[in-house]
Write a structure and sequence with these properties.
The complex is a heterodimer of chains A (324) and B (238). By secondary structure, chain A is α/β, with parallel strands linked by helices. Chain A has helices at 25-31, 62-69, 91-97, 113-123, 130-136, 152-163, 182-197, 209-215, 233-239, 284-294, 309-317, and strands at 10-22, 35-47, 51-55, 77-82, 85-86, 98-101, 170-174, 201-206, 218-223, 226-231, 244-249, 265-271, 274-279, 300-306. In chain A, the strands form three sheets. A six-stranded mixed sheet of chain A has the order 6-7-8-3-9-10, with helices on both faces. Chain A has a four-stranded antiparallel sheet with strand order 2-1-4-5, with helices on one face. Chain B is mainly α. Chain B contains nine helices and no strands. Chain B has helices at residues 10-29, 42-72, 75-80, 86-116, 124-148, 152-168, 181-187, 191-204, 209-233. In chain B, α4 (86-116) packs across α5. The relative contact order of chain B is 0.16. Classes of the chains: A alpha/beta (324), B mainly alpha (238). The A-B interface holds A 70-72, 92, 95-96, 98, 100, 102-104, 106-111, 115, 118-120, 122-124, 166 and B 2, 5-6, 8-12, 70, 73-75, 77-85.
Chain lengths: 324, 238
């Protein structure tokens, strides 16, 4: 990729990472195994300055992977290097240089925002620049409010601020926009981009395709404890050969062979009354329309859809995203 | 250490301090006391008991519920992604609680002395030492409960199961000498008994250290035992 020369230094190197949890006794007999493998041998590197996404459904092992890198959990096997430091031996040094936003954004109930930021800064032996931090996430007038009186979006912006108190080199975001309304989500995205523009490397997990597509320079698609692919999200979509889907409704019976004469139609899914065609190029759309005219076929609801990460995911895992 | 900001629960502090005071006032005003020995008034007798009770409750109930709440909401986890070390974090949580316990002690004693002419014989050092030792014994109880229980619902029966016998067999409101033999045996090994007895002696008359050394000793044994169990079993995370 053209920007590869910009970040050549890996800040995180994960090699063959495995994490197993012991199963409760009753599940052991039922499943005939003693442990549950949450992460089954995962390798990737994160380059300095990029936004790296781990995309996958709930239970894919995203959070476990992240928590091992952050030093909250120990791996069963494999190695993790963060900023050149070993995650099992140099955890405190790593923690000083990273910022973390966890999935739940809960704090002490009765401390206000300023006090919380000061408290967290004190854990790093630093003084918090409260006006700057709160100003950055646009919460300066909430300085004296309690977290429980913030809206979901405000709360999430505050957790971003609290993850920045130690001026981290890498910021970890675990599902930063889950449960937020579209506007609040966009606010968080804007902030993430701004943080990244300051040169902070960002690693985030998400189960929103759109989020990964919009924010990430590279995404790792994860399912059932394994990484299926890692690439630029746009590249992933491009690589999916059947990039464009044409669909329409028709009451007329159309023989599958009918489409063989139409150039560039790669695949046909005829599910009466809906017909879905996968086409290789946009030129084929006019061919399809012409063919339909020629064949005197009535059709309605003609739609052209380009592939999304969701299609990539479907293609890789063979199951749709929401099923889980 | 970072204890200065960790604890600020206005409503909580209010109730942990007001409730024991209220119980004390009620017990002192009601005529129960008259039936007890002639030597001291009941308000005099019961004050150190209430102090011991609030120390126990501050340790067991206060800490266990607080920790379980912080744990179940993921606040502890949020702390653990910062460079703060686990022992440091636990210690600062304990210190915050000890501060509350000491405030309770001062308020209760002041109320007793000012309004009910209860005696406070004035050995600050012994009083403080008893409060700290007792406080830590029960705080360690609280830590263990927070390890066992992952939710408030799970913590409630455990704290009650431990707290109730301590309250009723602990020499707090009446002398355990009146209890049936079996209960008396149990009562005489509970940490609360030593705490209440020690505090009572210190409060009622100026005593030399020797007189309460037995209470110190047993409380100290409890402290060591609890510390050992905590080091062995206590986990901050699940």
């Amino acid at each position: 990729m053209w920007y590869n020369f910009l970040y050549m230094t890996p800040v995180i190197e994960v090699t063959d990472l495995k994490k197993t949890y012991p199963l409760p006794r009753k599940d052991r007999r039922k499943l005939d195994q003693a442990v549950f493998e949450a992460v089954k041998g995962v390798s990737f590197t994160v380059e300095k300055g990029e936004i790296f996404g781990i995309l996958g459904p709930n239970g894919a092992g995203k959070t476990t992977t992240l928590e091992i890198i952050e030093g909250l959990k120990q791996q069963t096997a494999g190695s993790v290097m963060v900023l050149g430091l070993d995650n099992t031996k140099e955890t405190p040094q790593i923690k000083k240089r990273i910022g973390v936003q966890l999935q739940s954004s809960e704090y002490m109930n009765l401390l206000n925002l300023r006090e919380l930021l000061e408290l967290f800064a004190s854990f790093y032996g630093k003084k918090a620049n409260v006006p700057e931090l709160l100003g950055f996430v646009n919460l300066q007038e909430k300085e004296n409010s309690l977290v429980k009186n913030l809206s979901g979006g405000q709360k999430q912006r505050f957790t971003l601020a609290s993850a920045l108190v130690n001026e981290p080199e890498i910021l970890f975001l675990d599902e930063p926009t889950t449960g937020l309304d579209p506007r609040a989500r966009r606010d968080v995205w804007k902030l993430v981009k701004e943080i990244n523009a300051r040169g902070i490397t960002i690693v985030l997990t998400t189960h929103y395709m759109e989020e990964a597509e919009y924010l990430c320079n590279r995404v790792a698609i994860m399912d059932l404890g394994r990484i299926l692919t890692i690439n630029d999200p746009h590249k992933l979509i491009e690589d999916l050969s059947h990039t464009t889907q044409v669909s329409f409704f028709t009451d007329d019976k159309v023989d599958e062979n009918f489409w063989q004469s139409v150039p560039d139609v790669a695949n046909v899914y005829s599910n009466h009354p809906k017909v879905i065609l996968e086409v290789k190029s946009l030129d084929s759309i006019s061919h399809i329309v012409q063919a339909l005219r020629r064949g005197n076929i009535n059709f309605s609801g003609f739609t052209v859809k380009t592939a999304t990460l969701e299609d990539v995911y479907l293609h890789l895992t063979g199951h749709s995203f929401e099923e889980d | 250490m970072n204890l200065k900001l960790i604890y600020r629960n206005r409503a909580g502090v209010f109730w942990t301090i007001v409730m024991p005071v209220f119980i004390y006032v009620a017990l002192s005003v009601l005529p129960i006391g008259k039936t007890i020995g002639a030597q001291f008034s009941y308000s005099n007798y019961v004050l150190p008991g209430i102090v011991a009770m609030s120390i126990m409750q501050g340790g067991i109930y206060g800490l266990a519920y607080w920790m379980v709440d912080l744990k179940s909401r993921g606040v502890i986890k949020r702390f653990l992604v910062t460079p703060i070390r686990q022992p440091e974090l636990v210690l600062s949580l304990l210190c915050a609680r000890v501060l509350v316990i000491l405030v309770q002690l001062v308020v209760l004693t002041l109320v007793g002395v000012v309004f009910f002419h209860a005696s406070f014989a004035g050995n600050y050092f012994s009083t403080l030492l008893f409060a700290l030792m007792g406080g830590f014994v029960f705080l360690l109880f609280g830590l263990l409960i927070s390890t066992m229980a992952s939710s408030y619902e799970a913590a409630a029966p455990i704290t009650t199961a431990i707290g109730l016998p301590l309250t009723f067999l602990g020499n707090l409101f009446y002398s355990v000498d009146g209890l049936p033999h079996a209960l008396r045996v149990v009562a005489h090994i509970l940490p609360i008994t030593f705490l209440a007895d020690g505090l009572r002696q210190v409060y009622l008359a100026p005593v030399r250290f020797g007189a309460v050394s037995k209470d110190f000793l047993y409380l100290g044994l409890w402290l060591v035992a609890m510390l050992a169990i905590v080091i062995w079993r206590f986990r901050l995370e699940e």
